[in-house]
Design a protein that fits this description.
Layout lengths: L1 H7 L7 H8 L3 H15 L3 E4 L3 E4 L8 H7 L7 E4 L5 H10 L6 E5 L21 E9 L9 H15 L5 E4 L3 E4 L2 E12 L5 E9 L16 H5 L5 H22 L5 H6 L7 E6 L2 E10 L5 E5 L2 E5 L4 E5 L4
Parallel strand pairs: 3-4
Antiparallel strand pairs: 1-2, 4-5, 5-9, 6-7, 7-8, 8-9, 10-11, 10-14, 11-12, 12-13
Bound molecules: adenosine-5'-triphosphate.
The site of adenosine-5'-triphosphate has 18 residues, from strand 8 and strand 14.
Length: 319
């Protein structure tokens, strides 16, 4: 099916006969595969009598050679899938099979993209970026401190560099434009954090997605914010450059090396929020973050510090 898509991706007309000949199948088999492409991948294909079939808009697929050409200094070996359950899940399977880190897993779509606590990340075909970078960590806990916040900074800077200037951060791991989510980050760890472990830095960025009814909170994409289409290979290259820069700063100076930059870009600095931890809720005012990336809140006039993967922040109505 994807071989057929690759023949069509130039956005030109292709006759059923030519497609059939290229694939070694009959014209009716081509037609069936086209219907399947539309249903399965949500693509729209025009059929014009006498001319053939054409994708409604040309498609540019992820291309590891192009990514490497654009950012040769941070070319982690990349495994690109047309369709996968989740790039983080694939990364974890590869770690299990002793695949040598660092490496990158990319996919055109995810059928079970994941967010925190089993939530779903909506991942349509060829529109966005689904990216998991695997690193081996053998420097102990310090290298993990505040790491998901560091990834957030790198994602934010990559988006700004590509032309989405209003993007900012929400503690601990969201990248937003105003109140709308444009990217999400999910770190997963295997091994012993105090000794040798592997960390999967999972990043989902809404790039050219214009509509979906599946996301149950406010969201946006780079295209919706800027009115133009983005080249995903360029964005992957840019993200690699930014990740390399921020991970290096973090490795040398710990989280405190990026603490003030993170705070300056925190969209909810000074806001009245509720911190949700399971069934518990704590109301407070955001003071900032500490040198390890933990959230500092003023609660009943007293500063308190919160950290941990199970915490979520919500704005209070009176904020
Ligand atoms: P938290 O504040 O705890 O981080 P969250 O709702 O942002 O809460 P995440 O686990 O970071 O949780 O992200 C998963 C959520 O993101 C989903 O429950 C859904 O609401 C939303 N979501 C899913 N797919 C997308 C997408 N492609 N773009 C934007 N938002 C999405």
């Amino acid at each position: 099916m994807l071989t057929l898509l690759k023949l069509l991706k130039d956005g030109r007309f292709h006759s059923g006969q030519a497609l059939g000949a290229a694939l070694g199948v009959s014209r009716s088999a081509v037609w069936k595969q086209l219907k399947h492409l539309e249903a399965e991948l949500g693509l729209s294909i025009h059929k014009v009598r006498g001319r053939g079939y054409q994708l409604a808009s040309p498609l540019k697929l992820l291309d590891p050679a192009e990514i490497e050409h654009l950012a040769p200094s941070c070319a982690w070996p990349a495994l690109v899938s047309d369709s996968i359950d989740s790039t983080n899940a694939e990364a974890l399977r590869l770690i299990e099979r002793q695949h040598a880190a660092p490496f990158l897993v990319l996919a055109e779509r995810q059928t079970a993209g994941r967010g925190r606590r089993g939530r779903k990340w909506v991942s349509p075909f060829a529109e966005n970026i689904y990216y998991s970078l695997v690193l081996r960590i053998d420097g102990g806990m310090r290298q993990l401190e505040g790491l998901s916040l560091v990834v957030g900074l790198a994602v934010m800077q990559a988006l700004r560099e590509q032309g989405v200037p209003e993007v900012g951060l929400k503690w601990p791991n969201d990248v937003l434009v105003g109140q709308k989510k444009i990217a999400g980050i999910l770190l997963e760890l295997v091994g012993d954090p105090a000794d040798v472990c592997h960390v999967v830095l999972g990043v989902g960025i809404n790039v050219n997605m214009q509509m979906t009814e599946e996301v149950d909170q406010q969201w946006t994409s780079m295209r919706l914010e800027s009115g133009k289409m983005f080249d995903r290979n360029q964005l992957v290259a840019e993200l690699g450059v930014m990740l390399q820069k921020y991970l290096a700063r973090h490795q040398v100076g710990g989280f405190s090396a990026v603490q003030s930059e993170w705070e300056q870009n925190h969209l909810w600095q000074g806001r009245a929020v509720s911190l949700i931890a399971g069934v518990n809720r704590i109301d407070g005012e955001v003071l900032g973050i500490d040198s390890q990336g933990a959230l500092r809140l003023r609660v009943d006039g007293v500063e308190k510090v919160f950290s941990g993967g199970e915490l979520s922040l919500r704005l209070r109505n009176d904020s």
